[in-house]
Specification:
This protein is α+β, with helices and mostly antiparallel strands. The strands form 3 sheets. Strands 7, 8, 9, 10, 11, 12, 13, 16, 17 and 18 form a 10-stranded mixed sheet that branches. Strands 1, 2, 3, 4, 5 and 6 form a 6-stranded mixed sheet that branches. A two-stranded antiparallel sheet has the order 14-15.
Length: 476
C-alpha cells in the first residue's frame, strides 16, 4: 500500500463517522440538531428557554486539568459577547512553567460552540463551553497544549496523509472507609467484578451516563484488577475501575480524557469517596495506566494493522516504529510523577522495556484482538495500543508527541531493523534489549537529543521544550 503517494486530506472533515460532534446529550435534544450544526443563536435560545443561570468557560491548563471562568449574563447582548468573544485571562498562571513571560501574559479564552453542554454538577443551571487559547496577536497561543495538539494533528495529516484517531483507557482508583455491609474483594483480583463485591459500580455507571449526556462518546466501563484492603497506615479500602472511551480525532480524544477525569473526581467527591489517577497508589499493587489506542484513517477509512498475515501495512510501521524509537521521549508528557517509575518496575502488566507485539500486555505497544461477530463481521476497528503512559499524563501534549512520532516514523532510517529488534510476540520469540528511562534526568537527556522531532513545523515551541527539559532536570 503506497500511502506515501496519497494526497493529504485538506481538513479533518474528510474522515467517516466523525465523532467530534456527537448527537447524544441533553443540549442536542433541547436544540433539536447535532452539535456540528449549532449556532450562537441556538445556545442563546436554549439558555433562556430552559432557565439557565450561568455560563462557564472551561479550558485545559498546562497541568492537564480543567479550569473554569464563570459568568452571570446580564442580558442577551452580554451572553452573545461571551459566546462569540470569550474573555481574557492570565496565561502565565494557566501555563506556569511553560515559558510565558509574566509581562506578556494576557491571553484570550475563546469558546467552541459545538463543545457546549449542561454542567451535571453545578447547583445552578450552567451552560459550559470548552475553549481554545489565543494570544495578544489574535492567533492560537503557541504555548497552549491545545494549540500544540491541534498543530501536531494537522501537521501529521499534511505530511503523512493520515488522520489519526485515538481513544484513552482511563484507569482510576476510588476509596472509602469500610463498613460492616461491605463484601470485600481480594488483592489484585477485581477484574470485571460485579456488585456487591465492588462498591464503585454505581459511581462508574453514573459516570457513563453523565459522559453520554454531555456528549463524550464512551466504549465501556468495568472494574479493574486493583483492590487494596485497609491498613494501619491507610484506613481506606481502594478499588480500581476503568472507563474506555471511543475513538475520536486526536484533539477530541485528549479533551475526552480530561473531561472524564473531571466527571470522576466530582462523582467521588459527591459520594464522600476519594478518586486517584496516581500511577501507583500503594506500592506492590496494580498501578493505573492511561493507555491510548490509535487508529489511522486514510481517505476516509480506518486502516487494518496488517496488510496480510504477519506483514504490517506501511502506516502501522510508521506509527509503531515511531513509538518504539520515541517512547522514552514521550514519557516527558505521559509519565510525570515519581510513582510513574514504580509502576514500570514492579511488574504489574506495565512495560519496562521497548517491545511491540500482538496481544502481549507487557509490551510497550500491543496489537489487541479485533472483535468479530458469528459471521465474521468486524465490530469496531483494529487499533495500535500504546501502554507506557499513566494517570499522571498530560493527554494533549502526549497525543501531540505521538503525532510527531508518526511523522518521524514515516521517514525514520532503519525502520524495519528497529521493528525487528523490538518485536516480542509469540511468533518471533524475541525479547527487547532497550529499556525505558528510569529517571526524569534520563528523560530530559533523550528529549534534548531528539527535540528537533518535536519542534518540527514549530509544533512544540523551542522555548517550551527548553522549559520542559529544565523542569525534568529539576525533578531528577
Amino acid at each position: 500500500m503506497a500511502i506515501a503517494k496519497q494526497t493529504a486530506p485538506k481538513s479533518a472533515k474528510s474522515a467517516p463517522n466523525r465523532e467530534k460532534n456527537p448527537t447524544s446529550g441533553k443540549l442536542s435534544q433541547w436544540i433539536g440538531k447535532s452539535a456540528a450544526n449549532w449556532t450562537t443563536d441556538d445556545l442563546i435560545k436554549a439558555f433562556y428557554s430552559h432557565d439557565l443561570s450561568l455560563v462557564s468557560l472551561m479550558h485545559i491548563g498546562g497541568d492537564g486539568w480543567l479550569k473554569t471562568l464563570d459568568f452571570a449574563p446580564r442580558d442577551r447582548a452580554h451572553l452573545q459577547d461571551i459566546l462569540l468573544g470569550g474573555e481574557r485571562a492570565d496565561g502565565s498562571s494557566i501555563f506556569a512553567g511553560m515559558g510565558i513571560p509574566t509581562g506578556q501574559s494576557d491571553i484570550v479564552l475563546r469558546p467552541r460552540i459545538e463543545s457546549a453542554f449542561i454542567d451535571p454538577f453545578s447547583t445552578m443551571p450552567t451552560l459550559v463551553l470548552m475553549c481554545q487559547h489565543f494570544g495578544r496577536d489574535g492567533k492560537p497561543l503557541p504555548e497552549s497544549p491545545d494549540t500544540i495538539l491541534n498543530n501536531a494533528y494537522r501537521h501529521a495529516m499534511a505530511t503523512t496523509g493520515v488522520d489519526l484517531y485515538a481513544l484513552g483507557e482511563v484507569e482510576y482508583y476510588i476509596a472509602k472507609r469500610p463498613d460492616e455491609s461491605d463484601c470485600y474483594g481480594s488483592s489484585d483480583r477485581g477484574y470485571h467484578s460485579a456488585s456487591p463485591f465492588v462498591f464503585g459500580e454505581g459511581l462508574r455507571r453514573q459516570a457513563l451516563a453523565i459522559l453520554n449526556d454531555i456528549g463524550i462518546p464512551v466504549k465501556y466501563g468495568h472494574s479493574e484488577v486493583g483492590y487494596m484492603s485497609p491498613t494501619e497506615d491507610d484506613p481506606y479500602v481502594w478499588e480500581q475501575h476503568e472507563i474506555e472511551l471511543a475513538l475520536q480525532p486526536l484533539p477530541r480524544a485528549a479533551e475526552a480524557v480530561v473531561v472524564t477525569q473531571w466527571v470522576l473526581r466530582n462523582l467521588a467527591h459527591r459520594n464522600g469517596m476519594k478518586c486517584s489517577f496516581e500511577p501507583v497508589v500503594r506500592k506492590g499493587h496494580a498501578g493505573s495506566g492511561l493507555h491510548f489506542h490509535m487508529s489511522p484513517v486514510v481517505k476516509g477509512k480506518h486502516l487494518p494493522v496488517y496488510r496480510k498475515e504477519d506483514e504490517l501495512n506501511d502506516v502501522s510501521k510508521w506509527l509503531i516504529g515511531g513509538l518504539v524509537q520515541q517512547g522514552g521521549v514521550l514519557m516527558a508528557f505521559g509519565n510525570r510523577t515519581e510513582s510513574s517509575f514504580t509502576r514500570l518496575t514492579q511488574a504489574k502488566e506495565a512495560p519496562n522495556s521497548v517491545t511491540w507485539g500482538r496481544y502481549n500486555r507487557k509490551a510497550l505497544i500491543r496489537l489487541p484482538i479485533l472483535v468479530k461477530d458469528a459471521k465474521g463481521r468486524a465490530i469496531g476497528h483494529e487499533t495500535i495500543e500504546y501502554r507506557l503512559p499513566d494517570g499522571s499524563a498530560n493527554p494533549q501534549l502526549l497525543l501531540a508527541g505521538i503525532a510527531q512520532a508518526l511523522v518521524f516514523g514515516k521517514n525514520a532510517p532503519d525502520l524495519d531493523k528497529w521493528l525487528e529488534k523490538t518485536a516480542a510476540n509469540q511468533h518471533s520469540g524475541q525479547t527487547a534489549t532497550v529499556s525505558v528511562p528510569k529517571s526524569f534526568g534520563e528523560i530530559a537527556n533523550i528529549l534534548e537529543q531528539h527535540r528537533s522531532i518535536y519542534e518540527k513545523s514549530n509544533v512544540f515551541p523551542a522555548h517550551l521544550v527548553d522549559k520542559l527539559i529544565e523542569n525534568l532536570r529539576l525533578k531528577s
